[in-house]
């Protein structure tokens, strides 16, 4: 039998078994923690009963620290998760304050600079290192502090953990970053620039939704109001501006420059970030992680296969080992890769449905795993992690949890599948073939990409690659569809995926997109992962070069990563197109900036295959 969530390595269990050591807690609300430039960051401090000193779990958030309060969590049946359309959305009745207070930790929740109750001005990815260092220094000086700290949080809250871990702060003993690859700018070679880009294309819908609901202008404390009065009652007020926004309609507005200003929204960092391409020196001023940084703490990297950039999560895990400052940090990098959506790994059920698939019992006690991680490194319990696997991952297709000693999984073979067609691969009605044998004759599959009618992303949630049926999209003529023969034996694919294409275009610049699909015997074409490359970045993100129309180029498209068992009777499919809108911004095909443009041109794009031009899909086939 396949191991279930309760039996992997004898470590993970379904029951939390948490109990308050003394019962209850004390809340010190809205404490002003001073930064080196005189700005005060508003901070809630939850102290367990008892004399202390206490180990600390620090949570730094741009989404309102008040939503972490146990009474808010209970009343809203939610810890919190960011959603591009709905801002704060309910998800789980167990929150970090409850979990860690009951385990004897002090929990410190802090609003980012310039947001909600904190003073200053919010600038995207600016001041994060300094504000973390100053907060840690202040916490170390408190009488109740044990001067030993871990951190918690997902997405932006995870990214600031990684930023903290490269500051060499002695009291920071461990991190548990979830969906945190946004901490990196160019440090992983992908130039995603804090998740603003992929393959040189803008993460358009995700960032537009995020920025629209993350303004830089908030109401601030009236100096005439006593601090104690403010702290007692501020949680009853909505400090975030309130407005309704039709994101779906706004996505089609051109130019994307000034798009939120035209919608009448409060000031945001949209134009400041979106106007700067990956090669811009603007990104050098952000406090994200670079190749010059070292990581000083053990880390439990947590993500899902259907997050927007799981390949970067794997790279972050390996980056931490390669850039560790010391043996303890180097030898204690662990990873959990689960099923489901962005920041959704703590909400898996025994009857889990995701997209168009029923996955069965996907339960995983992430709280238990994170608690044991902090018990080991923050509290110093040397037995807390006995039998914990180095890598734990969900395998779609078999729908089970598995473990490995590393990622990539030892013994992985990178297997090539070649693209070809006889009469043309356009749409499901074509004869595009994906084969383990290279084609013997030349073929050229052409299609028209029109920025006014881009290939759609399809149904999805913010920051998530949904496992949905792609046949409606595959019916389009601007989608090339390459499908394998029916598999006689199963194939386990775990890790990072790439697509190498030989292409030409009538335009000076265009995009190439790829999508890995698992075709079920009943015909369902379930999306696994996707990727994109803006052709001007084919030779690197610091050296953009336009195309010579009609010339043939070799390009490599990063398709991120997955963990999937292609069962016997299934087929492997690759979709190739030139847009994935609105997830990514449209390439207007002009060779200009795509940021300030309102008019595009139609491009005739071509994919070549044959003995000389071996366009191919590269899959990480793991031992079963």
Model description:
The structure is a single chain. This protein has 624 residues and is of the alpha+beta class. 16% of the residues lie in helices and 27% in strands. The protein is built from 13 helices and 26 strands. The protein has helices at residues 70-75, 96-102, 128-140, 156-165, 204-212, 227-233, 247-250, 259-262, 270-274, 310-322, 327-330, 366-377, 471-474, and strands spanning 25-34, 40-48, 54-61, 81-83, 87-89, 106-111, 145-151, 197-198, 201-202, 299-304, 333-338, 352-354, 357-360, 391-395, 400-404, 413-420, 433-435, 443-449, 480-483, 491-505, 511-519, 525-534, 553-566, 571-577, 603-609, 616-621. Strands 16, 17, 18, 20, 23, 25 and 26 form a seven-stranded antiparallel beta sheet that branches. The radius of gyration is 25 Å and the shape is globular. Residues 1-22 and 77-93 have low confidence and may be disordered.
Q: Can you summarize this structure?
A:
This protein has 624 residues and is an alpha+beta fold.
Features:
624 residues, alpha+beta, 7-stranded antiparallel beta sheet, 5-stranded mixed beta sheet, 26 strands, 16% helix, globular, disordered N terminus
Q: What proportion of the residues is helical, as a percent range?
A: 10-25%
Query: What do the pLDDT scores average to?
Result: 91
How far the N terminus sits from the C terminus, by CA atoms, comes to 14 Å
> Which geometry do the CA atoms define?
globular
Q: Which oligomeric state applies?
A: single chain
Structure annotation, total helices: 13
**Proportion in β-strands:** 25-35%
Largest sheet: 7 strands, antiparallel
Structural class: alpha+beta
Radius of gyration: 25 Å
- Low-pLDDT sequence parts: 1-22, 77-93
Give a count of the beta strands, DSSP E runs of length 2 or more. 26
């Amino acid at each position: 039998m396949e191991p279930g969530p309760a039996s992997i390595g004898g470590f993970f269990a379904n029951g939390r078994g948490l109990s308050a050591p003394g019962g209850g807690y004390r809340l010190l609300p809205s404490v002003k923690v001073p930064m080196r430039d005189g700005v005060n960051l508003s901070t809630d401090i939850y102290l367990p009963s008892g004399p202390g000193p206490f180990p600390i779990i620090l949570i730094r958030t741009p989404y309102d620290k008040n939503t972490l309060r146990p009474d808010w969590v209970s009343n809203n049946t939610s810890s919190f998760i960011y959603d591009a359309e709905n801002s704060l959305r309910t998800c789980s009745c167990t929150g970090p304050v409850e979990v860690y207070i009951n385990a004897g930790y002090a929990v410190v929740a802090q609003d980012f600079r310039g947001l909600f109750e904190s003073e200053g001005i919010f600038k995207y990815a600016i001041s994060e290192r300094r504000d973390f260092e100053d907060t840690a220094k202040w916490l170390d000086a408190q009488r109740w502090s044990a001067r030993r700290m871990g951190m918690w949080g997902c997405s932006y809250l995870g990214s600031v953990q990684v930023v903290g871990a490269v500051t060499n702060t002695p009291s920071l003993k461990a991190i548990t970053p979830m969906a945190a690859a946004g901490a990196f700018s160019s440090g992983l070679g992908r130039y995603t620039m804090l998740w603003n880009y992929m393959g040189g294309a803008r993460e358009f819908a995700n960032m537009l939704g995020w920025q629209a609901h993350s303004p830089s202008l908030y109401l601030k404390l009236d100096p005439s109001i006593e601090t104690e009065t403010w702290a007692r009652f501020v949680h009853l007020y909505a400090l975030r501006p309130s407005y309704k926004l039709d994101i779906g309609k706004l996505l089609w507005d051109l130019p994307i420059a000034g798009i939120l200003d035209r919608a009448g929204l409060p000031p945001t960092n949209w134009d400041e970030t979106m106007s700067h391409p990956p090669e811009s020196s603007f990104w050098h001023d952000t406090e994200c992680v670079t190749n010059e940084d070292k990581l000083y703490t053990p880390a439990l990297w947590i993500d899902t296969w259907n997050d927007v950039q799981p390949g970067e999560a794997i790279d972050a895990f390996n980056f931490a080992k390669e850039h560790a400052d010391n043996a303890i940090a180097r030898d204690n990098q662990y990873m959990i890769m689960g099923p489901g959506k962005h920041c959704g790994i703590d909400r898996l059920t025994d009857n889990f449905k995701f997209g168009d698939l029923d996955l069965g019992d996907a339960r995983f006690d992430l709280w238990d795993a994170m608690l044991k991680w902090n018990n080991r490194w923050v509290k110093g319990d040397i037995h807390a992690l006995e039998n914990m696997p180095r890598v734990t991952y969900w395998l779609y297709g078999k729908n089970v949890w598995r473990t490995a000693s590393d990622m990539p999984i030892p013994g992985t073979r990178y297997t090539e599948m070649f693209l070809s067609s006889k009469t043309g691969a356009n749409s499901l009605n074509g004869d595009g073939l994906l084969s383990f044998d290279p084609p013997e004759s030349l073929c050229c599959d052409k299609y028209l990409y029109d920025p006014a009618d881009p290939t759609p992303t399809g149904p999805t949630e913010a920051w998530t690659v949904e496992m949905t049926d792609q046949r409606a999209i595959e019916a389009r003529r601007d989608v090339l569809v390459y499908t394998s023969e029916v598999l006689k034996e199963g194939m386990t694919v775990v890790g990072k995926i790439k697509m190498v294409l030989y292409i030409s275009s009538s335009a000076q610049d265009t995009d190439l997109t790829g999508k890995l699909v698992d075709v079920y015997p009943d015909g369902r074409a379930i999306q696994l992962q996707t990727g994109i490359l803006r052709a001007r970045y084919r030779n690197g993100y610091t050296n953009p070069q336009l195309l010579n129309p009609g010339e043939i180029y070799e390009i490599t498209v990063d398709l991120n990563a997955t963990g999937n068992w292609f069962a016997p009777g299934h087929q492997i499919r690759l979709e190739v197109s030139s847009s994935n809108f609105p997830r990514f911004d449209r390439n207007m095909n002009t060779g200009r900036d795509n940021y300030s443009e309102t008019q595009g041109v139609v491009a005739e794009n071509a994919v070549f295959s044959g003995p000389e031009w071996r366009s191919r899909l590269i899959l990480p086939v793991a031992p079963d």
